[in-house]
Every structure is written in structure tokens, then in C-alpha cells.
Design a protein that fits this description.
single chain; about 450 residues; alpha+beta; 2 domains; ten-stranded mixed β-sheet
């Protein structure tokens, strides 16, 4: 049987690929790449390509800078756009040390470790995110308020307009790249859209999230439009989330399903939810990593704020959707905190670690939240034992810093760098004089 590496080399030759982009991310999930020619590809696949890791946020220190980008041939894909007239392909890379050991600063390696821990317990881990984002007119970004391209809301069916056309073209491009899309729709806020990716294993899905974000922005830019995954770009409307559906399988069997349970939820599924709820505050700095993320996580805008679970109650942090009729393999949980600007490799890793801890330690699952949590007073929430997610980045970082689970999952290198970076971001934010302050105080004081 032809190996994946042989397939890549043959495809590059037969399709006349002129450049291959080697993709990876820094610790914050910012995409990085460099190009190689077909002449270098075989060597790259066998040995990796050396580059200066000290130039990448969260990677190496200057005195230990060189690392290798080792392409994962399973991720090879021809890009549907061209650089000039030249066909281009991409491949995701694992970053390794010069001796071939996994590099501690590589987010893809962090997720690989978490998946291996699950595999040793007999589980495979699947994810299906719902990516929300906004389109804005590019000319309004510098010095002015972002200007939406449409005024639609949930599921709005409008006559053909630029935003709807961009969303359709994005879906077709993703499908052309072999990335299946389950749904695409207009979201609640003006010019806010959503693309739901069909579930697959978590590592492939993290790669897919990185690809989908780039495709959304690339197609928008080609049409003079700015697409953004910023969690809360517009005041007074809901922000963008990345609600993600997760499931564990044991072989071909959905480990979350139990036909004899009133919820159809197994002991494993309940333990996973209990783990997520127990450790939710600790992992929020990873799933919601920006100062701006906490302007989405407020009551009143359909974002999850309270640490709770339910079946149909969308005010809860964890939701258990009804499985499709006759398809127990579709049993899953939906974690509603993440936003689309997170690093998906790290976010999926900490979610998995929290869920597995709940299973291993036999955490008890709290009662289902049966009422609208947004309508409850702080006193009523406290009486029910319902906590809130962190209300700011600094609060989330403090919870993360005290978490043995997050430290173990991310590894010392990523854990310590991430905390330093986020504390620096918070200092920059708290010392910044905002437009709000100038408009409110400058003239009157």
C-alpha cells in the first residue's frame, strides 16, 4: 500500500505544486508558516525543517533556539487559492527538538499528550465546534466603529447580499478542501455568521479550526471585507462563541450513551460533565484567553456565565443535546464557554483533561439546572451552589495558576509562558486610556 508520504510527493509532482506551506501555531494559536519548494519536501517529511524557535511567541529562548518543523503528511492539502498563478499546498507540522523529541512549546504536542492519556484509558475523543464570526466593511476599521455588512438576525433568509455570498463561498471552499460542514447560518447579531463543522477526532478538528478561520478571512479579504473572530467586537449585541460538542468513544461505541438512563447518559458521560463543571473556572483562561473574551461572558447576551449543566437550558455552561432518533452514537455534550479566538489545541486538551479527571475520580454530578439562570438573583444562585465563570482575564489567570490539572495538561513550558503573557496583557489593558474614558471624563473634569 502506498504510504501517505509517497502520496504527498506524487501529488505535488503531478499537480505542479510550486510551494508547500508548513503550518503550525504559537502558544496563543496565532497561525505561523514558511514556504518550501518541492525539492525540499522529501527531506522535510523525513527529517523536518530547522527554524529559529526564539522568533515565535512561547517557543524557545535565544540560547536554545533551533527547533524542527516536522510535517504531518496526513494533513497535506492543496489550497484552493493560488499565489499568483502558482498552485500552493499546505501541511500541518509538529514541532520537535533537534534530537527528535516533542517540543514542549508546541500546542499540537500538548493536545497529542492529552489524547494519548485518553487512549491509554481506552477512549478516543471527538469534537464538533460551532464557529461564530463577524463581517465588517474594511474601510471602517481604522479610527471608527466597525460597520456591519447586513442587519439580519438568527436564521435570517434574505435576498442575495455580500455577507451571505461570502458565507456560501466559504462553505464551498471548505468542502473543496475536504472539510465537511454540517450547518451554516446567519447568527443573532447584524453581520454575525456561524459555520458548524462536522465532528471528527479532536486533533484533526483543531487543525480544521485553524484552517477554517484562515479560509473565512481569506475569502473576505479577497472581496474587500474584514472577517473577525474577536469574541466581542460590537457593544450592545451578543459576542461570538465557539460552542463545541464533545464525545468519547470506546472503539466504535459512544462511551457517553446509556439507553437505560433517563437522560440517555452513561456514568462515563456524567463523570465527564462533572469534571468539566468542577474544573471550569480553572480552564477558562485557556478557552477564553483574551481581555475581550470577558466582554462576551456576561449575562444578558446568551453567553454562558454560570457553572451548571442542563439538557435544553441554554443558560447553562454544559448542555446535553438530545441524540438523534435511533442514533445513540450521536450522544454528546456541548461546552458553551470557548470563543473562536482560543487556541483550539490547548482548549481541547484542557477540556479533555477536566472530563477525564471527573471520570477517574468519580465526581458526583450536580442536579440539572431546570430554570433560566439569567433570571435568578445572586442570592438564589448561591443557595443552589451555582458559581460563575471568572469575570475577567486576571481572575481567570489566577484560577489557572492555582490549577494542578491545567499545569499538568499544558506542561511546564506552555503553562508558565501562557500565564506570563496573560498577566502582561492585563497590565497593558488596565493602563490603557480608552475611548470610553476620554468621552466620559475629558470634557467634564
Amino acid at each position: 500500500m502506498q504510504s501517505q508520504q509517497e502520496y504527498v510527493l506524487r501529488t505535488v509532482e503531478e499537480r505542479g505544486i510550486r510551494f508547500i506551506q508548513l503550518w503550525f501555531t504559537d502558544v496563543l494559536g496565532v497561525p505561523k508558516s514558511f514556504n518550501i519548494t518541492p525539492a525540499e519536501l522529501e527531506g522535510a517529511l523525513e527529517e523536518g525543517m530547522t527554524f529559529d524557535g526564539s522568533a515565535i511567541d512561547g517557543f524557545s529562548r535565544v540560547q536554545e533556539s533551533d527547533v524542527l518543523a516536522r510535517p504531518d503528511p496526513k494533513t497535506f492539502q492543496i489550497l484552493p487559492w493560488r499565489e499568483g498563478d502558482m498552485p500552493v499546498a499546505r501541511v500541518f507540522c509538529d514541532i520537535v527538538n533537534l534530537d527528535g523529541t516533542p517540543f514542549e512549546g508546541c500546542p499540537r504536542n500538548v493536545l497529542r499528550r492529552a489524547l494519548e492519556a485518553a487512549r491509554l484509558k481506552g477512549f478516543s475523543f471527538y469534537a464538533a465546534p460551532e464557529l461564530e464570526y463577524f463581517y465588517f466593511a474594511s474601510g471602517q476599521l481604522d479610527g471608527g466603529e466597525p460597520r456591519p455588512l447586513d442587519s439580519g438576525s438568527y436564521f435570517e433568509l434574505t435576498v442575495a447580499d455580500l455577507a451571505a455570498d461570502l458565507r456560501k463561498r466559504t462553505v464551498l471552499t471548505l468542502e473543496e478542501m475536504g472539510i465537511p460542514v454540517e450547518y451554516a447560518q446567519h447568527e443573532d447579531a447584524p453581520s454575525q455568521h456561524e459555520i458548524d463543522l462536522r465532528y471528527t477526532d479532536a486533533l484533526t478538528m483543531a487543525d480544521t479550526v485553524m484552517t477554517a478561520r484562515l479560509v473565512v478571512k481569506e475569502i473576505a479579504q479577497e472581496n474587500g471585507v474584514h472577517a473577525t473572530f474577536m469574541p466581542k467586537p460590537v457593544q450592545g449585541v451578543q459576542g461570538s462563541g465557539m460552542h463545541t460538542h464533545f464525545s468519547l468513544f470506546e472503539g466504535d461505541v459512544n462511551a457517553f450513551h446509556d439507553p437505560g438512563d433517563p437522560y440517555g447518559l452513561s456514568k462515563t458521560g456524567k463523570g465527564f460533565i462533572a469534571g468539566l463543571l468542577t474544573h471550569a473556572r480553572e480552564i477558562t483562561a485557556v478557552t477564553n484567553q483574551w481581555v475581550n473574551s470577558y466582554k462576551r461572558l456576561v449575562a444578558g447576551y446568551e453567553a454562558p456565565v454560570y457553572v451548571s449543566w442542563a439538557r435544553n437550558n441554554r443558560s447553562a455552561l454544559v448542555r446535553v443535546p438530545h441524540p438523534r432518533r435511533g442514533k445513540p452514537e450521536s450522544t454528546r455534550i456541548e461546552y458553551r464557554a470557548p470563543d473562536p479566538a482560543c487556541n483550539p489545541y490547548l482548549a481541547f486538551a484542557v477540556v479533555l483533561a477536566a472530563g477525564l479527571r471527573g471520570i477517574e475520580e468519580g465526581y458526583d454530578l450536580a442536579p440539572e439546572a431546570a430554570t433560566n439562570l439569567y433570571a435568578m438573583t445572586p442570592t438564589e444562585l448561591a443557595a443552589e451552589g451555582i458559581r460563575s465563570l471568572p469575570g475577567s482575564l486576571v481572575e481567570a489567570v489566577e484560577e489557572m495558576e492555582a490549577s494542578e490539572l491545567v499545569a499538568e495538561t499544558l506542561g511546564e513550558h506552555v503553562f508558565e509562558w501562557f500565564i506570563r503573557n496573560k498577566r502582561a496583557e492585563w497590565v497593558d489593558y488596565t493602563t490603557h486610556v480608552s475611548r470610553f474614558e476620554l468621552e466620559r471624563y475629558l470634557a467634564r473634569l
